[in-house]
């Protein structure tokens, strides 16, 4: 009996099976989480996940690229430059081929050395072109991948054009600059025919070459590619690109399309300082033109246009101050325009908010004067 009890006692002491511990997150899961946090601008937490990836895989190129992006976004430019450089040969851990994005980021970080920036853009273009040819041969791959490659090639080419056109660089005065810019943009439009950013940049080049009619044609073609898209359509150019288009419209005295583009920008972000500035400037220029034409423009008196300008510029000034916006010249020009309007006796509207809807009704109403819904560019 004693033995039986002993056996039972021993059996009773056998421990139950321990619950399984949760599996550690895989590297792909950590990468997905870090990417999500970067999109949410939570860079501090994203960096912690990236650190966990690099602890497991110190040479993981995707994690290094994300680390460089986090460093760039948080203002640690030297660290970002070192991180992106580690993705390129002759670094021993650099992948082959290196990611073209590393060259693109380094091009942007080489503002003090335009020659080096051009080399990085060119290296990215060469890698992307090889990848695009591979995609074109593989007919079963998603078209979105092909479109993204073409877009990246075009943006790299535009980056090169902007360096050649920048008056702060000696390349701007090079006799070869005009032809070089034309060649780069022709390559961009061969790569992605009808690309709005390439056409917009070509219009800017034509403006610098004092060929305004050709610039108008380029702008009309560029704008027509996306002007009817919904605000949440991924094909819609980013706000900075649309604001750059507005500036070109203003240079060519194309005020109605400028206001329509600004309307779309403000529908997406009504706190954009530059958009309010450009709208105020547009109305200021329209008021000047109205004075020259007998006092009215598009059935609005110059005083009404000037008041709209004063309201927009006042909003710009307030937002600029509240946000600590870094563009000081923009604020100085806005104040200069406000001073001119004050000297003319133009004061802000008593209730500016109530007039905004009517302002856009006038603009949108002018859209259909020719009956086809399109804004006349000429």
Explain how this protein is built:
The termini are far apart. The protein contains 17 helices and 2 strands. It has a two-stranded antiparallel sheet with strand order 1-2. The protein is globular. With 378 residues, it is mostly helical. This is TPR-like protein. InterPro entries: TPR-like_helical_dom_sf (IPR011990).
Précis, in short:
The protein is mostly helical and 378 residues long.
Unreliable residue runs: 1-11, 354-378
Strand content: under 5%
Strand order of the largest sheet: 1-2
Calculate the mean pLDDT score and round it: 88
Helix content: 55-70%
Provide the fold topology.
Layout: H1 2-12, H2 27-39, H3 43-56, H4 61-73, H5 77-85, H6 100-108, H7 114-137, H8 143-165, H9 177-191, H10 196-208, H11 212-224, H12 239-251, H13 255-268, H14 273-292, E1 296-297, E2 300-301, H15 302-323, H16 328-343, H17 352-366
Antiparallel strand pairs: 1-2
List keywords for this structure.
378 residues; mainly alpha; 2 strands; 68% helix; disordered C terminus; TPR-like_helical_dom_sf
